[in-house]
Amino acid sequence: MKLILHGITFFLCFTYSIAQQSANVQPGVIGSYQKGLQGIGPDFGNNPASENFYNQMRDNLANMGIEQKIELEDIEGSIYLEDEFVLGTIFFNSDEESKMYMRYNAFNDEFEIKKSKLEKDETLALLKDADISCSLNNDKFKYATFLNDKKVKSYGYLKMIYSTDNYKLFEQNKKLFKEGKKAKTSHAVSFPHRFVDETNYYISMGDNDPVYVSRNKKELVDLFRAEHQKEIKQFLKEKNVDLKSKSGLVNLVAFSGTL
Questions:
Q1: What is the pLDDT of residue 21?
Q2: Which of 26, 18, 22, 20 is nearest to 42 (CA)?
Q3: Sequence-distant (≥ 6) Cβ neighbours of residue 134 within 8 angstroms
Q4: How far apart are CA 23 and CA 27, in angstroms?
Q5: pTM, entire model
Q6: Cα 70 to Cα 55: distance, rounded to the nearest angstrom
Q7: What's the confidence (pLDDT) of residue 118?
């Protein structure tokens, strides 16, 4: 598996990862500017988010007195939700804009898109904008504002997994990098550098921003309308809902739709 770090040309749109925002990049305008899409100029030829990751890793190892060049092949796991490009649909303001092959980079929180599966076709990155969404494998992804587990306003891709008139349940898929550890003795266990999965859930009420779903029942109940909270508490108690599972949360939100 190869991580595309260099030579990416953006003709439809571009990403706004935190690292990219700090880069000195001048956006150029393309033919689809009337749809709110922009492209990066031809002088932009790398991916700052990925470059920063490798630079940070080299610095961390150097601080430990280790000189090591890290390549993607040295890390177990994948940065993608699914490695293969799959045909999906891009929407602008809920209207279908185009169909392209895509895959979700859960480490950098971006969608990589191509016209076809051919290796010669350029790999693009979908613009991170609230007006632009996409569907892949029957899942709908939107770039949204939400409150994370620290109750801090954040931005990223969320996947809608259940909706009622009053509430929506979203899933967030992330890939986290875990630094490897070499055994210091023959009795210790070594761990390789690896990417691991993390899944978070969010609930939105009405048109409010989605809020992180805590495993604390009181905090969870507070995400629902005051007039619904008594029934929600009773449902959680009677059904012994597993707050760690998708199915448990789907059942809870489905129940809330009956109130």
A1: 35
A2: 26
A3: 88, 89, 90, 91, 102, 111, 126, 140, 141
A4: 11
A5: 0.74
A6: 10
A7: 82
